[in-house]
Amino acid sequence: xxxxxxxxxxxxxxxxxxxxxxxxxxxxxxxxxxxxxxxxxxxxxxxxxxxxxxxxxxxxxxxxxxxxxxxxxxxxxxxxxxxxxxxxxxxxxxxxxxxxxxxxxxxxxxxxxxxxxxxxxxxxxxxxxxxxxxxxxxxxxxxxxxxxxxxxxxxxxxxxxxxxxxxxxxxxxxxxxxxxxxxxxxxxxxxxxxxxxxxxxxxxxxxxxxxxxxxxxxxxxxxxxxxxxxxxxxxxxxxxxxxxxxxxxxxxxxxxxxxxxxxxxxxxxxxxxxxxxxxxxxxxxxxxxxxxxxxxxxxxxxxxxxxxxxxxxxxxxxx
Length: 319
Prior knowledge:
The structure is a single chain. This protein is an alpha+beta fold. The protein has two domains: about 5-150; about 160-319, Cyclophilin (Beta Barrel). It is built from eight helices and nine strands. It has helices spanning about 5-25, 30-35, 50-80, 85-100, 105-120, 125-145, 205-215, 295-310; strands spanning about 180-185, 190-200, 215-220, 225-230, 245-250, 255-260, 265-275, 280-285, 315-319. Strands 1, 2, 3, 4, 5, 6, 7, 8 and 9 form a nine-stranded antiparallel β-sheet that branches. A hairpin with a 5-residue loop joins strand 6 (about 255-260) and strand 7. Helix 1 runs antiparallel to helix 5 (about 105-120). The model has no long low-confidence stretch (mean pLDDT about 90).
């Protein structure tokens, strides 16, 4: 069913979610601030504590973004749009209800609006609205991850394993030379930039989707479990492009660029050894002349994500 009223609803939704997504592009969302500082008006939590609320909301927001909203988008692009509203009704409710209670009322309200729009929108409009929600939720989680108290990990260390001072060792892997589009990665807060070439011959559709979003700026962070790589969630795309070439992370070379559609439209840069065995899509590589400065970037981002919590942004531009 389509018509003027449907078009108005789609336009209103896209305008509202666009405003909210832009609002949280370069500064901490009010929702994240209130949750992490214990200033939620409803004081969600048991016996006066809010860490349990923070922990559950942080994990649920991640799962909602990566394992509900994005899979629905993938299904929508493979199947007719008619079941979308039913899928969202089934997947959204436990997430948006709890997250709304735990300090994310805008996420809940936009989720409810999206579900209503999807009941009447045509396939093209539904894709636009769902894609916009994917981008918004990924960006929201990026800030939640940034401010989570990862420094608590100092109380839970494996005996005998080094900290970040040993970062930057060379790792084995495939050659770094590609012949696709060239980009520049810029960390203004660190005074560092590097050049990279994308693997258009390996994953042409993924590279095409990525380049359509360039230029963009996103929040830079460090993983807590993978090893010596850095990532940035929430690139302003919602790619479901086919991925032809994946690579086991622990075997990838220093300087590898990856792009994970399934886990937050996430740009990843490897700067040293990693331990994870998961296969990840190959996006490209830092040029050989610039690989050496990645050690400084990796250590600075680790310290920032782990304890300092000062926003560091990654700017991606085409060369």
